[in-house]
Known about the structure:
With 231 residues, the protein is α+β, with helices and mostly antiparallel strands. It is 35% helix and 25% strand. It has helices at 6-64, 77-80, 184-188, 218-230; strands at 89-91, 94-102, 107-112, 125-128, 136-139, 158-163, 168-179, 194-199, 206-213. Strands 1, 2, 3, 4, 5, 6, 7, 8 and 9 form a 9-stranded mixed beta sheet that branches. The longest helix is centred in the N-terminal third of the chain and has 59 residues, at 6-64. The relative contact order is 0.12.
Amino acid sequence: MKSRIPGRADSRTLGQALTGAGILLILAALALTLYNIREERKAERAASRVLETLDPEIRAEEQKHSGEAAVPGELPYYVLNPEIPMPEITVDGNSYIGTLEIVPLNLTLPVMSGWDYTKLKTAPCRYSGSAYTGDLVICAHNYARHFSGIKGLTPGGEVRFTDVRGNIFRYEITDAEILAPAEVEDMVTGDWDLTLFTCTTGGQTRFALRCERKQLPGRDRNMVRQRGEES
């Protein structure tokens, strides 16, 4: 009768266990990848559906309020009263403050008024601030057709935000930062007029794209200067 050699049997059993564990890890990674792809596609479709409703409503609001900024010698209402709340339009139970166009990516997205993790699955969300006060911060998931592409952008590119009354705010990309998730204060403070941010791959850090607003048109800029001299 042959004697059992414990070392060989144990090694074989361990090898089989490791192989099985490796297969399970591969299957888990594949399942996670497929899940993320499905979520990205759902988010892209959801944002597109919102834009189909939001765009014509913004055009209607623009026509409705077009006279407010056309009074001779008068500045637009959001320049005269920057602290006023940004107007909103409700689509499918969610409130939106406008649309965001990232020109170098040829990408246009709706922007929700407030944020939570459920809302982020549909569209980018306002994290804080306002386009009127020059401290707007917008966050979005690292989806391919949401904010994943901003990590490859360089200074000089243009970003546009259009509020729900059709007022267009143009920005120039000036800087980018990598911040830790706990550095909330650094995310929302500074001299930037617009910040776009998303998670980096793996979710360990946040990528922030900083933008400065381009100058007002000449007529409005001159009126701002005149009002400053009068005061």
